């Protein structure tokens, strides 16, 4: 019988969680059941998802920032289909592939001219591993400095520079000579760099965990310190790049800062084929690939796969043709400003911050006595519990998919597809307003549901945390 993917999907619709319980990750499946995220999505288009009951959802998570151009974009799908029809070779290995050269050319046209070489990877984490190796080889040093609350992936090297200890528990020992400093603390950064043993300082211009936006002057000064002490300034744009912030790179908001290495991934795939890219200065590349016998000293089997390159090229074309950078800025400002107008009405909202369509809503302990008690009860049960009081009813009642921004962080993060419209913003704003109104009634059904989850979290702590925020 010929393979029929449509038939396979139809015959097995709804078996998602049973299959995961049996074969993949039953703990994660249990988490999704616990927080009411156990949906079976069967269709996707742009910024929308549909489940197997026909319900339509607004996706403000975008696959952790993969779907900047929206889900199942027809231009990218057509490009992949057209390419498959050509029977063009892929992964010959002993050749210089045409398509990777074309994608490298297109990427270089969108970044500073001093980033002259491109290395292709399969993911953001692999890009970080590449940057670590390149920096160590180019400088002859071993040390890496990273930021508290940083997230650069979960592979072995990237885990060593992860700012969240929860991800590290049980996986040590880590890559040596790695140390962290606090975002904004230039004295600490200089102290770390002063002994001239640090190969690279790696930074997300906007931290994915918490959506903490580095101040322009901090970036300028940090890059200057790196130059002074011979340390490479490495910028992780895996989530913030490809137009997310209203510029191609988040670093482009600070034109005086020049990175030595930039790491891209996620949205470059168009949501179809995993791909990443590491862009760096020519001299760094020449230190790595320094002779004929070192021509493949760092390489990856699938790094220049033709389908990935086609997806990347088509994605960049869509970003340009649909003016998604301008759209991200406009829609981000529309959403952020309306959230700011809402802030004075709700005691729990501490701040709203955004750059383009990378948005954070941060919560804090309120002054009102009853709400203060509710806050403390929630946090006594689990330090990551409170934001679920917002994400759960947003999904269950209002069909809006959102994300908690990190472990022990009272922040909701919005990273929707850049094709989002003002009417989509209104959908979210009305939903969020309704959830906040109900949350400010204590006691009430929202708090009862949260209490039940908190009790479950206490029983299963360290095993079935109710927070899902990788990526």
Task: Summarize the structure in words.
By secondary structure, this protein is α/β, with parallel strands linked by helices. The chain folds into 2 domains: 5-69 and 324-459, Alpha-Beta Complex (Aspartate Aminotransferase, domain 1); 75-321, Aspartate Aminotransferase, domain 2, CATH 3.40.640. 41% of the residues lie in helices and 16% in strands. The chain has 18 helices and 17 strands. It has helices spanning 5-12, 16-23, 26-34, 62-65, 74-84, 98-108, 124-139, 156-160, 165-168, 186-193, 216-229, 282-288, 306-321, 324-342, 369-381, 388-396, 422-439, 445-459; strands at residues 41-45, 48-51, 56-59, 115-121, 143-147, 178-181, 198-203, 206-207, 212-213, 232-236, 261-264, 276-281, 349-355, 358-363, 400-401, 403-404, 411-414. Strands 4-12-11-10-7-5-6 form a 7-stranded mixed sheet, with helices on both faces. Strands 1-2-3-15 form a 4-stranded mixed sheet. Strand 2 (48-51) and strand 3 form a beta hairpin. Helix 6 runs parallel beside helix 13, helix 10 (186-193) packs parallel to helix 11 and helix 16 (388-396) crosses helix 17. It is globular. Residues 462-466 have low confidence and may be disordered.
